[in-house]
Amino acid sequence: MPLLANERTVMRLAKLGVWAGTDALSAADAAAFATRLEGWGYGALWIPEAVGREVFSAAAWLLANTRTLIVASGIANIYARDAVSAAAAQRGLNEQSGDRFLLGLGVSHIPLVEGVRAHQYGKPVATMRAYLLAMAAAPYRSIAPASPPQTVLAALGPKMLELAADRADGALPYNVTPEHTRQARSILGAGKLLCVEQAAILESDPSEARAIGRQFLSLYLGLPNYVDNWKRLGFTDSDLAGGGSDRLIDALIAWGDEQAIRARIEQHWQAGADQVCIQAVSRSGLPDERLLALLAPRP
Predict the structure, then answer these.
(1) Cα angle 31, 26, 94; round to 5
(2) What is the DSSP letter of 258?
(3) How far apart are CA 107 and CA 128, in angstroms?
(4) In the chain, which end has fewer C-beta atoms inside a 10 angstrom radius, N or C?
(5) HSE-up (13 A, CA, CB side) for residue 274
(6) Is 107 within 8 Å of 139 (Cβ atoms)?
């Protein structure tokens, strides 16, 4: 029987990672991007799954073109494949890469699940719990990875965070504040991975930075999972109107010079994050490599 998450030691992660959509890059350019991140000393590259590349095949390509970088799904949609397929992909990618794949798993959002995939969106926590149990029970008749593969959940609310503490190796909160990170660590407890996505804009002009921030947040303002979480954090309907108030933009997105952005990263670390995953936002939609180069840990 597979070990439960609370019966094993979770992987050690470098304190800085990168969250980046690479669908606008060719396969060759995505591989080159991952190689640059590896050379700059980042510990992980988190890649999403929505309506672009399938996340496991994309991860396989990036893992094959790097040597030490962890590639993580941020997130793999549980409605995109059954639990047996997800468990097999997780094990296979780790065996192929020397344990460099980290599975970030999530319930996605109603518009993507029902509108795009034509599935019925179930109760998030109950559906995820059943999926994790099915993964744990899935048969696998191939070469096992050297270490038990790790899973973190895309978790915002307290119930999903509790499930991450109980049945997974940790959590990946997205579009959150350092205060949420503090709350998440309290719920997860010690010994669980807390990998926090942080959007950042290398722009010191407030009007321009917030305009880019509103462009970035426009998609998420229409997704109830994020809206509900922001309200739990104390934001109001007026904060969510008109593309987001300055207060909302400033709380969710680190903007300014390198020092200002590093200060926000430090707040997440102080609040209990194991890894902060920088999403370097730009007007083009491509990762802002100027910022990633500035923040690079460098080996």
Answers:
(1) 40
(2) H
(3) 7
(4) N
(5) 23
(6) no
| CATH of the domain spanning 5-200+264-295 | 3.20.20.30
Q: Which single residue is written with the structure tokens 């593309």?
A: 243
Report DSSP letters for 193-216, one per residue.
EEEEEEEEEE---HHHHHHHHHHH
Beta carbons within 8 Å of 144's beta carbon, 6+ residues apart: 91, 95
Closest CA to 105 of 147, 59, 37: 59
Helix axes 178-188, 258-271, angle to 10 degrees: 20
Domain locations in the chain as residue ranges: 5-200+264-295
| pLDDT tens across the length of the chain (299 residues) | 334 444 556 677 999 999 999 999 999 999 999 999 999 999 999 999 999 999 999 999 999 999 999 999 999 999 999 999 999 999 999 999 999 999 999 998 888 888 888 889 999 999 999 999 999 999 999 999 999 999 999 999 999 999 999 999 999 999 999 999 999 999 999 999 999 999 999 999 999 999 999 999 999 999 999 999 999 999 999 999 999 999 999 999 999 999 999 999 999 999 999 999 999 999 999 999 999 999 999 86
User: Which residues of 107-186 form beta strands (DSSP E)?
Assistant: 151-153, 170-171
pTM higher than 0.90 = yes
Tell me the chain's radius of gyration from C-alpha atoms: 18
CA 112 to chain centre: 17
